[in-house]
Amino acid sequence: MSVANIKNNVPHPPTKNNGEASGLGMSGTTNNNKNNTPRPRTKNKGDWKEKLTPFLFISPHMLFFIIFLAYPTLYGFYISFNSWNFFTDMQFVGLQNYANILWNSDSLYFDYFWSAFRATLIFTVLSVPFLVIIPLFLAIGINARPFGHNFFRALFYAPSLLSVVTVVLIWIWLLDTNAGLVNYYLQTLGLDNIPWLTRAPWVWISLVMMTIWWTIGTNMILFLAGLGEIADHLYEAAKIDGANKIQQFFHVTLPGLKGPMAFVVIMTTLASFNVMAQPQLATGGGPGYETRVLILYIYEVGFTGGNPRAGLAAAMSVVLGMILLSISLIQFKLMSKEK
């Protein structure tokens, strides 16, 4: 037997075929992919607490908002389409309440509503400029930090801490025609008594004066906060450019107070449109109906007399709310418009 035949007859050791080799390769790759695949994220028990925490913080305010603002507003809007006097069932009347105050000139409520709106507008036009200008200049003076500036800041702010009833009683004591302190001193000067609370236009002057004295402190504090945000280097640069005090006021102070000014004007206008207690307590809406403002008239229609008309009063409130919303939007657009 030849050597070649012997080599051919020797059994060879088993070898792994390509299929097995490729199987091992695929198995290794699969194992690696399994190791690299992220595991599904298990829910942490603390996740729901983190999501719930913000709602817990806002829930008291949200509850207050729903109970005392959202629900009464929607319910009042619903009442405005009904005839109701609190003692009987509501009767749906559609737009009749709105017609009686907006376009039905034969209705008595039409004349009274717009007369009250006129009185409200007069008060707003007379009071708002003073309630913006006077606090502004008081804030500028106090911001200059003269001697005793903290005392004067507290002095001007103190009346705003009083209730409106207290304020009105103080001014009735001062302005009473026969026994008022102001008329007493006018008599000592040889002047006649002034009917501050019983005759126009003195009634408007009285109402505006007591409102100014009562509320300028709040607006003054707001302007002081705004003045504190104006950088000192702006005034120094204006001085270097040769600007005097008046020029600094118009070109540095007023632009720097743009935000606080818009807020003060809008909020003061809304507050003036919602005036009620001053004319109710000081003049009773008189003389005649001269100072019967809109909120006071709504109160009289809805809550006084033998047959209160809650539906009509609700319709008046809705109309007033729409007017105030329109005025606020117009003021905001005008004051936020870039020069």
Task: Summarize the topology.
Blueprint: H1 3-9, H2 18-36, H3 47-79, E1 82-83, E2 91-92, H4 96-102, H5 108-143, H6 149-157, H7 164-175, H8 181-188, H9 202-228, H10 232-240, H11 245-256, H12 258-273, H13 277-282, H14 294-303, H15 310-336
Antiparallel strand pairs: 1-2
Biased composition (Low complexity): 29-39
Region (Disordered): 1-46
Subcellular location: Cell membrane
Brief description of this entry?
The chain is mainly alpha-helical.
CATH uppermost class of the domain at 127-158 and 201-336: Mainly Alpha
Count of extended strands: 2
Calculate the mean pLDDT score and round it.
Answer: 86
- Note the gap between the termini: 115 Å
Main location: membrane
Protein name: Carbohydrate ABC transporter permease
Transmembrane segments: 55-78, 112-142, 154-174, 202-228, 249-273, 310-330
Membrane topology: Multi-pass membrane protein
Written overview of the protein:
This is Carbohydrate ABC transporter permease. Its main location: membrane. Pfam families: BPD_transp_1. The chain is mainly alpha-helical. Helices cover 70% and strands 1% of the residues. The chain contains 15 helices and two strands. The chain has helices spanning 3-9, 18-36, 47-79, 96-102, 108-143, 149-157, 164-175, 181-188, 202-228, 232-240, 245-256, 258-273, 277-282, 294-303, 310-336, and strands at 82-83, 91-92. Strand 1 (82-83) and strand 2 (91-92) form a beta hairpin. The N and C termini lie far apart (115 Å). The model is unreliable at 1-8 and 15-31 (pLDDT under 50).
